Amino acid sequence: MTPARKLQVLCQEDFDRLLLWLDPDPERAGVIYEKIRWRLIAILASRGCPLAEELADETIDRVARRVADIQARYVGDRAIYFLGVMNNVHHEYLKQPLPRLIEGGDNSDELERTHLCLDNCLEKLPPHSRQIIERYYAETKRAKIDLRKRIAREFGVSLNTLRLRALRIRAKLQACIKQCMEVVEASPFRRGLGKGI
After folding, report:
1. What is the rounded distance in angstroms from the CA atom of residue 73 to the CA atom of residue 77?
2. Which pTM does this prediction carry?
3. Which of 1, 14, 150, 183 could form a disulfide linkage to 5, CB 3.0–4.6 angstroms apart?
4. What's the confidence (pLDDT) of residue 164?
């Protein structure tokens, strides 16, 4: 999530309106809310997303802010609307540049460990997947678009197919990096990892 997105705090009025939109009965609304939240988390986790709870909460916040605009005209299962928003939130998350796969913070040791884990996880990828992911995020702006068109031509696939492959590879990398960081944090030799041991 972007820093600006993180700063947006859901106000009580938006949350109350969301619950009322889910069901006029507060008890039932609370149950529906919990079911939707856990369903979002389960779907995101099944996609290998290491921040499933955070992205589920971001999804709920966005829906809550939109309820005032959609409540009069929205027809159908409310949970389906959440799923659509969740897909957008997840795609935004996956589009973050490679070095931000796992936030490293301001601590240079932590950042170094993150990059070591990234390198370790890249090594575990099949050569074909590694080539795609390293090149896919290599450029910015117009150069990025041109590069991705070239990569798609080289592999004989459409741009959309290339994007989906890159997103799947990225999700695997994110899960690997998260697992690596947890092992490093728990290791009694974690200081040594930063020195190349």
Report:
1. 13
2. 0.51
3. 1
4. 82
